[in-house]
Design a protein that fits this description.
Helices cover 19% and strands 22% of the residues. The chain is of the alpha+beta class and 589 residues long.
Length: 589
Amino acid sequence: MIKKFIVVALLVILLAGSTIAGRAAAFPEGEAWAEVSIPAGLDLVAPAGVDGRAATNPKLDDALAELAATGGGQTADIFGITMNAGRTQVQIVVLPEDEPAVRLLVSQAGGEVTGGLDGLLQAWLPPGALPALAAEPAVQYVQTPNTIVTAETDAVAALTEGVAAAGADAWHTAGWRGQGVRVAIIDGGFQGYPGRLGSDLPATVTVRNFVDGQNNAQVDDTMRHGTACAEIVHDMAPNAQLYLLKISTDVDLGEAVDYAISQGVDVISTSLTFINVTPGDGTGRFATMVQKARAAGILWTTAAGNYRETHWSGAFADGDGDGFHEYAPGVEVNVFGPGNGTAYQIPAGTALAPSIRWNDWTAVNQDLRLVLLRHNGTAFDIVATGNNAQTGLPGQRPTERISYRTSGPAAVYGVAIQRVSGNRGLYLHLLTPNRKLDRQVPAMSLGNLADVAAVLTVAAVDARTPFVREAYSSEGPTNGQGGAPTGGFLKPDLAAFANVSTASYGTRVFNGTSAATPHVAGAAALVLNTWPTAAPGQIQDYLQATAVDQGLPGRDAQYGYGRLRLGAPLKPGNFAYHSFTPFVVTRSR
């Protein structure tokens, strides 16, 4: 099917699926894109038609429908879909009573179920079997997996500057080094960790791999991001026992948390987020995981996300009635740019992964389409769309996602949002991980998991330029119930240190809220060292009480309670001044 904007026609490639993991800043190392004037024609003259694939496969993710039609190969590469031995990884939404029947259906289709979580089965299936499986009455929906987004950026010596900045060195001198405390670092990879044992990491660590089809030896694979995070925890709490747990999806995360609980872990550190899994209001499967961990005595620290400059949110507006959302009157394309009224010339080979969600999580009958556009010098061409069905069927979500890699000469790219059906007011979030938007809205830019009330959410400040807030560091508040624009609560909870040194990153600094989070996890291990009977909420309360206030007076949506600072080393049992109720996050002070 040929689609057309104005006078230029290009083949539409329907794209959705797993998030492309990227780096914390807008540019990976070595990227320096030219800035040009934003082209005219941001008001899309002729709305494109809607491909019928989603309508004929309302229980099958758009990207998987395309994969089934082509059998894999180049299609899987374009979509960013994982393939192994002729099968693709999927997640199947099921009711609990239907789970045995669906497991049998997967087996009969030549597939294998590898895990499950909260009404979700994770499985591997031949692409050609997906349409028939989705049509089965026992299957609610078949989707691409909810994958983690880490922020692998560019680090030097072996000791993070955060140790001194947090005051942890004084605690070390006083004998508090995390002995007896168990910390689990959950991440997408720990490449090179064996070479750090006995120096930048403890002499021994416990490793487990929860990624489908991988063994524990492959914890040393994929990325060095997790290794750098573990180094920071070790620097902050040198005698703590570390668990390196590798995951890829939310199902893997649930399995890793269960394992951490079984091992008596005291602190979990996750320098990762998810996108479009929940409404952003702190509810859903991540809230269930965090509460389970807290009830088991675990304090969970997590990254706020690096989306402050790559996020836009607002009410759907269509002043000219053409079906396309207007970011401003006459502006229906939000181009990638530094946020100063210019656009980037994005070169070939660049990964773009825009996504949207909107506040229709109950009915799911307001159908939107996500459109990625490329400017050819005269007009915008459609290069990719996300076009899942939102028709009110069980298992559907009010989300769209595109994975796309640019080709051809450097060009201006942008994102449009089209209403396919429905007529009620909607509140939208557009997120373009690691790629800045010209039109940005910093508020409510948290990733999923970071919005859970009972998790300790960490923002980033620069350790090298006296604690200036990092411009990318996601800020709150959370969404209100069901993704509403009001009624949320303040996040993050604390700010900690980015632009720090780690051995894993060699001569470059480790950046992002990814770097900030393990500083807080290590600090929590030191407090637990002096106060082994403390509940997670009491440890969090202590860290918040000793934080150095930054930004607006009191708690705010950028720094939380302030910058991590441990204060003078404590003596065991000296906690009478704490009046915190365990397992409840303090809302205000």
